[in-house]
Amino acid sequence: MEVMATDLGATAQRAALARPSLAAAASNGLRDEEYSALQAGRWFSELPEGLRQAIIGRARVHRVVAGTRITQRGDAAGNWVGVARGAVRLGTALSDGRVF
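Predicted structure:
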């Protein structure tokens, strides 16, 4: 599984940055096929153009192996996580020990 995480503040979310090229996306570690997958995704493609540009322009790519915990309950919310390739499993432990 590969995960792309970004650290965006409210100002960056509203900023309309210059259109990033594939080279600019690659400079943050985003591969061409990941960039294309993000652009083609329904949720991302329906965002306003300026916001999509701001996200790509500010993105920091983190690649993780399957099974790696990227966050857990109690962690401060400071990142937006977008999956360019792979999947994310969400779950929580119930009071009786089962994992949901």
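Summary: The CA atoms of residues 25 and 58 lie 9 Å apart.
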